[in-house]
Amino acid sequence: MLTYAIRRLVLSVPTLLIIALAIFLLLKLAPGDPLASQPLTIPPEVREKMREAMGLNGPWYEQFWKWLVQMFWIEPQVLIDLIFGTEISWQWSPLLADVPQSWIDENLAAGVIRETADGSLEIYERKQRIMSWETRSPVMDIIAQRIPQTLWVVGMAYVVGILIALPIGIYSAYRQYSIFDQSGTFITMIGFSIPPFFTGPLMIVIFAVQLDWLPSVYNTVHNVVDWDSFVVQLRQMVLPVMVLALQTTAQISRYMRASMLDNLNQDYVRTARAKGLSEAVVVGIHVLRNSMIPVITVIALNVPSIFGGAIITEVVFKVNGIGQLLIGALFASDIPMVMTLTFIFAFLIVMFNLIADLLYGILDPRIRYD
User: Fold this and answer.
1) What is the DSSP string of 9-71?
2) CA separation for the pair 90, 112 (Å, rounded)
3) Minimum mean pLDDT among 21-30, 316-325, 355-364: which range?
4) Per-domain residue ranges for the chain?
5) Which residues contact 108 (CB under 8 A, 6 or more apart)?
6) Annotation: CATH topology of 139-363
7) pLDDT of 125 strictly over 80
């Protein structure tokens, strides 16, 4: 198992590089100009300098290599500095002797420059990070600010969907062709077929407009400080969680039902019943344990896809997460932001595919990765 995991991790490196290159080339070929939102009164020479500062004038392979270095070398260094509080890098600069003393005093107070023991001045050597063309801020800093909101909504929706789907799938299989099974099949097929951009506005019309039970807009700046604010947080999470959990429940419950039906007809189930074991032990322990093996792999594989569904849901409910961030970056032709976010999604897909394969081998002793 360890050898297989290491081999898959090694193979995932060229896979991710090819995916990154494909994403980069597609974004380069896509229509749109990152300077299109700038005023038309900007002189052509200034606009050209802006393009040069953004790195748009260089060859595509230089731009791609620069992004790779920033993504896999500089950003991890920044993360390590942030976690361990390591000292920033300083570099002696003779150019500081030509600047006004007021500027030196101001930047000494700000921590941009410092004075050494021999009286010379050192300037902070800033790492050239991936910068957003739209906000002029580091891309990873913006993602770090947005991702907690996405995890709140997406994570809760996935947990709720799984907790609802498993009992429905188990009971539907045990009571096959009953009214509960047929009703559950009908409802889950509807939930699986209807996309979030339809169920989202429908939920808003019913529960926010007609019944006025729940808010239609997710307040991202809301802070939970007491019980009342916690209730407000739960109320504003209900609608987006319901929309995302509906598809999760529909898909996983169908997998759970099919897996349970496959195991209920096996010989070991008839043997267990012939030995006098109770129905609760037969179904709840023997059948359920074997049925969960393929379902757990499906759950692991669906984690990246739920983020894809969250993109539409975040836009509908105004959740200030990475989904809304990606849509805004696409409209603004912010290639560094779109490139980084799509690569993160691709990384999640590759990693959770590996996790699903490893879980399948751990749960099923018949599977060997030799």
Assistant:
1) HHHHHHHHHHHHHHHHHHHHHSS--TTTTS-TTS-HHHHHHHHHHTT-SS-HHHHHHHHHHII
2) 9
3) 355-364
4) 90-126, 139-363
5) 114, 115
6) MetI-like fold (1.10.3720)
7) no
